[in-house]
Structure formats: C-alpha cells, structure tokens
Specification:
The chain has 344 residues and is α/β, with parallel strands linked by helices. 28% of the residues lie in helices and 28% in strands. The chain has two domains: 261 residues, Spore Coat Polysaccharide Biosynthesis Protein SpsA, Chain A; 74 residues, no CATH class. The chain is globular.
C-alpha cells in the first residue's frame, strides 16, 4: 500500500468561538485543547512517516503566515493557496488534481480535536484500503449523544474494514437524533474522507462537471512558488461553491464508511470545548487565573484578568484582550450574531 497523503483543509471565519477565535486568527491556529494548536495537532497525528506522506495543506492567503509558522514540524509539506474560498469540493479538487491518480488522499479538517490518535491512525489505514478499491470513504464517528448539529451516516452492508453507506442524513431535530442514537446504525459525519485522487476527480466530473473542469484548469494554469502552489484565479473564480458532501459523497454509488471511535469533536462551540478539556469534579474547566465558588459546568478562559465566579452553572466566561464574553452554554450557539463577532 502506498503512503496516505494527508490533505489538510485550513481556514475558517472564526465566529463560533469569538472572542478567542477571530477572522485574522481562527480556531485552527489556536491552542484550545492542550499546548498545540488545532492545526499543529492535525499535522501531528498525520506525522508518522511509515503511514503518511508529507501533507498537502489547502488554505487562503489570509492564513499563510499562520500556516508557515505552525507547519515547520511537517517536513516536505506543500501548500495550495486558494484564490478565494469556494467550499470543500473545490479545495479537495485542487489537491486531487496535483496528485498522482493512484494517490490515496485523507482529507482532514484542521480544526477538529481527536483524543485517541492510535484509533485515528487505525481508521485511516482501514479507509485507505477501501479507497484503493475505489470506494469513497467517510469516517463514521461513533455517536455518543443525540447531537442536532451534526450530519449522520446510516450504515449499510458490510465491507472488509467498513460498510457501504446506506444514506447520508442532514442535521436532524432532537427527536430524530434520539431515534438515531437508539437505533445504533447511525454515526456522525465528521467530515474526514479518504479516496484515490483519480477516483475522486472522476466522480466529481460525473456529478459536477463544471466544477471539476474549472478546478483542473485552475491547476493547469497555476504557478509554483517554492513549496506553495497558486492556482489560476480566473479559472477558479468560475466555480460555484459546494461542499464535498453534496457534490460527491451524496451522489456517488461508491460511498463507504469506516467506524471511528476516537474521542472526536469539531470544537464547534464553547460547550464542545468544555467537553474536550479537563474538568474538576463539578464539571468546571478553567484556563488562566480564576476562582470558582459553588459553580457547576462553568468554563473560564482568560488571557489576563483574574475571573471570580460565584454560584453559576453552565456558563462560559471568556476574556481575550479587551473583549469579554459571558454566555450560558445554550446561548453560546448565538455568538456569531454579536456585532463584535461579526466585525472581528
């Protein structure tokens, strides 16, 4: 088996974890869980040179400085600089068009937390084996709660090392999510995929021919600059943005999944970050200077001022420079609606 090529998708608007995360420095480039940034952790779990080839990083101009600073521990990494954001199908197509047709790509968002790296690598190996047989493989994350913020994958007939995908399901309401959890045949769709580069491009051309053609033209007319590759902006501009889920995975009849129980979280809210960090016996999590009295489920993250909290439950208190956020965990879903978050 050839080495797996990690394709790291790196970007984001930075609103869901405001004020810690900003447009200028979004979630992937922050040390939210542990000392490494999310991006550094993503590179690290794909860093075993026996299993993985050097990574291909797809990002935008706005994040190049962060990518350069934080990818020094990934020797041989190449960077594709997107002329503009066009969603995941186009970003993956750029990487695929730059790789040999038989290369197995492992597409990884750069802002996810995975607690069990050994389980991740085992799932990657199983997915790569299926990808070499021309399956387009999704990681099916073991569902541990009736989450309404994730898409789901319905497991189908067994394959060696995985299963066919019976169907992809949009983000459900709570009752439907509870039914999925009780059923046991549904997994979260974590947005991690494996496929041969040539197979992905063939599927994309079959289902979204205009997108595939524009991506190929953009690569053919692009320019190399050291370890950076700049696709042609004119050709890329013609692309209609679409996720890889809609453009390919929900269209193909070769969709497969590998089950993955690896302590995964997309860290999509302050509540999710609280769940991924160490907590005391009352469920409180603190980073920075703080004193909590009679509190439960309180998350504090301060980069300076000392925070004192008394008698509160299920709130987040975030201090970043001169910005302060205080929210219930339920209300944290609305952080992006704040004027300050919109302005960054």
């Amino acid at each position: 088996m050839n080495k797996i090529v990690p394709v790291i998708l790196c970007g984001g608007s930075g609103t869901r974890l405001w004020p810690r995360s900003r447009k200028t420095k979004p979630k992937p480039f922050l040390p939210l869980v542990g000392e490494r940034t999310m991006f550094e952790a993503t590179l690290g779990r794909c860093g075993d040179s026996e299993q993985f080839a050097p990574p291909v990083i797809v990002t935008g101009t706005a994040h190049l400085q962060h990518v350069d600073e934080q990818s020094k521990a990934a020797p041989g990494a190449t960077v594709i600089v997107e002329p503009e954001a066009k969603n995941t199908a186009a970003a993956i197509a750029l990487a695929a068009a730059r790789l040999p047709a038989d290369a197995v790509m492992l597409v990884c968002p750069s802002d996810h937390h995975i607690a069990d790296e050994q389980a991740f690598r085992a799932a990657a190996a199983a997915a790569a084996k299926l990808a070499e047989e021309d399956w387009l493989v999704a990681f099916g994350i073991t569902a541990s709660a009736p989450e309404t913020g994730y898409g789901y994958i319905k497991r189908g007939a067994p394959l060696e090392g995985g299963y066919r995908v019976e169907r992809f399901v949009e983000k459900p309401d709570l009752a439907t999510a509870q039914a999925f959890l009780a059923d046991g045949g549904y997994s979260w769709n974590g947005g991690i995929f494996a496929f041969r580069a040539g197979q992905f491009l063939a599927e994309l051309a079959g289902h979204r021919p205009a997108l595939a053609a524009a991506a190929r033209e953009s690569v053919e007319n692009g320019q190399q600059d050291g370890n950076r590759f700049h696709p042609d902006a004119g050709a890329f501009a013609a692309i209609e943005p679409e996720s890889v889920d809609y453009a390919v995975m929900e269209e193909t009849d070769r969709a497969a999944m590998v089950p993955a129980s690896m302590g995964w979280s997309d860290i999509g809210s302050w509540a999710a970050l609280r769940a991924a960090t160490d907590r005391d016996r009352d469920g409180n999590s603190v980073r920075g200077r703080a004193e909590l009295v009679d509190c439960t489920g309180v998350f504090v993250d301060s980069d300076g001022p000392r925070i004192s909290v008394i008698g509160l439950s299920d709130v987040a208190i975030i201090v970043d420079g001169d910005e302060v956020l205080v929210t219930t965990m339920e209300g944290a879903q609305k952080v992006g609606k704040l004027e300050g978050a919109a302005k960054q």
